[in-house]
Structures are given as structure tokens and as C-alpha cells.
């Protein structure tokens, strides 16, 4: 049906389609006839005016797959994760969306449609798309994303190098079920969907840290193992690592063997020279005694109570007389008692490749303690000659240098000498170390060099009398 009408002096021909969904406006201007086709529909979906030339459902099926979903993201709260909505189960529900469009399209009279077609729409109706949600698909995606979103908790710790108390940091893991609930609550209008996490608490929290003032050094001591490195160096570093961070609570007795543990390959130790029956032999954990000696020396200078300590059978080359300490797992231990009212922490470090430093942290020293020793008796040593079938007759080699034995008394007191109540005395005994020569069978002792100063006799073989007063277990 078509009719010509005059509006404001302009002759118009209006044709309204029988379906009532479109209008064609023709007007004469400048002697020519112009035609304009307008939709009487004023409904918009996803930035698009919905046409009326076909059914809404047909139009929706022809839309690009992501037209209504392109701005939707997974959101963690700290970072955005752009993910194709189709991968996490969201898709346009064409049937429901078409019903919404039909409900939003108003019914108009023919004259109203002609006026709107010529003068344009008044207000556009915005229709929200409807979606279908595939929970199984979303579960698969979230499960795959979970490892990428995982954050391990970080324990609180005492950084003795930087003198800091470092707080703990909680971790997180994705709560797939709770996140699915967030997605299914409002998948229509959600542009950002929050991912839900479970908090993972650190195993060591800030309040679990000992009340140690790591910025204060009570005492420290260093020893050098450059001349006796090799496999001993590995054992020294291993024992130092096990010892680092150990605590001494007020009044508590500290056990070196308990903290460092068994000297075994399973515990990270290796074979290195040890002292067995006054001679060096290979043994597991050689070098650990140097760590114990360094700790003992630091404890002496800190005014710590020495509960249990034994000196080596011979003087050590890395610590002054009286400051060394033997440790043998299950046999001989170094035990210390903290006499102060605050906890102390043991810190081990290596200022250089072959120097170990042990510090006692937690307080300032009430006084600068000094250690002095004096030799009360000096003991001569002897030469030991042992036959070695691997050497030919007449040949020999020195396998061990001899040294004197000493009885030593140590005195520990404040360096200023003003407070005599802090004075402590203890004793150390170092047995003579025999000079040892290996000789070929039938070799006369006359071919050996003269006895050195301090060697008063010669012993052939390893006599039982030589082992008296000497420990029968290894000294590391």
C-alpha cells in the first residue's frame, strides 16, 4: 500500500510493508524522486541496530561468534588474563536473546512508523544478550590455569647478613569450585570475573621467629683451613651449613653433635684425614673438628659456659692451644650453656674461600673477654719406625712429623681485668706426636736422619705402650 502526502510543502510517498516492520519514504526534490528505507525498530544489541528484514534469531546466528563476548576477561585482582570466552564455557544463547529483542520491539501504528521512518528514532532500546554457560568446559580451563596462578608461601626468616627480620609472605592457590560459582552467578553482565584463591600460610610466620636481635654480635672467631683443604673443605662447609641458625635459649645446653648430626655420607659428609691412635688416617667427616673448635673459641670470647669440651690429642694448626675442641659423633661432644637472659643465634660464614667465621648473635658483649694460656709442662716425643713392604730395602720416607706434648691451663676473663668474678680456668692436655718413618724390609735404622730435638727414643712398630692415654676413636 502506498500514498502521497504533503508535509511542510514536500510531497511524500509512503509505502508500509505488509509485515509492518519497514517503511519506504519517497520525496520529490529538484524534479527528482528520492527513496529512503528506514527500519521502524529502535533496538540495539552489542553495538548493532537489530534489523527487521529477517527474524531476530536468524540474525543472531549470523553474528560473529565473539561479538557479544569480546570484552570479557578472567580477573585475578592483581593481573588480567585475557581468555577467549568460548574456552571457559560462555556462549550466546540465541533463543533467549531473540525473545528479549522481540519483547523490546514496540508495536506502532502505520502513521507512527511513517513518522519514525522519516524523522528518525527517538530513544534506542538497549538489550543485554543472554548467555549459556558450560561448567564442565570452564572447570577444564580453570584446572589448567591453576598451576600458572599458584604462588608458594615464603617463610619468615632472620637475615643475619643484612641484620634483618624478614616477614613471611602468604601464598595462594586457585579455588576452582568457588571461582565457578562467581562465573555462574551473573554470566550475562560480568565483564570481569574474579578468580577466587585460597590463602596458603607460610610454615614459619613472623611471630614464630625467635626473639633474637640478629643485629648485635656477642662474639666471633675465625680459623683458616687453607693448608688443610681438599675434602676437609667440603666437610667444613657442610658442618657450617648445618650449624648456621642454631639457637641457644637462655639457660639451655647446646649440643654440637645433636645439631650437626652423624658424620656420614647420607648426611652430606665425605672422607678426609682424621687422627686415629696419634696418626692420620682416612675417615668420614675429617675437618668437622675445626668447625667445633671455631665455635668453642667464639663461645670462650663470649663468656659462654663450657659444659663439655675435650682438647685434641695433639695441637691443631688452626687454633691456639686451649681453644680447640674435639667432636666425635656418639662419643665426644662440645656442649655450651647460654648464661644470658636472651636467646643467642649461631651464624656461620666464609669471609674468604678458606676462612670460616662463627658469630654468636643476639646481644652486645657485657665485656670484652680475652683468652690466655700457659704451658705448665712440656713432654718429649719419640721416633716410630714402621716396616713397609712396598718400599725396597734401604729406602725410607717420613710419614709424620713429631711434636711435643703440652699440659695447658687457660684463663678467660674480661679484657679490662676489673671484674674478677668472670674469670674462668680450664685445662687441656696435648699428647706428644711421634715422628713416624716407613722403611723397606731389612732397612737399618742407621740410615735414617739423626733424632730431631725433642725426640728422646726410638720405637719399632706400634707398641701397645704408645697408645696409653691416647683416644682410640678418630679426631676430626
Write the SSE topology.
Layout: E1 2-7, E2 10-16, E3 23-29, E4 32-38, E5 43-45, E6 48-49, H1 56-61, E7 73-75, E8 80-81, E9 90-92, H2 94-104, H3 110-119, E10 125-126, E11 131-133, H4 135-149, E12 157-159, E13 164-166, E14 171-174, H5 176-185, E15 192-194, E16 197-200, E17 217-224, H6 231-243, E18 247-248, E19 253-255, H7 256-260, E20 271-276, E21 279-284, H8 288-302, E22 305-308, E23 335-337, E24 344-352, E25 355-361, E26 369-379, E27 381-387, E28 396-400, E29 405-414, E30 424-430, E31 435-439, E32 455-460
Parallel strand pairs: 5-10, 7-15, 27-31, 27-32
Antiparallel strand pairs: 1-2, 2-3, 3-4, 5-6, 7-8, 9-11, 12-13, 14-16, 17-25, 18-24, 19-23, 20-21, 22-23, 24-25, 26-29, 28-31, 29-30
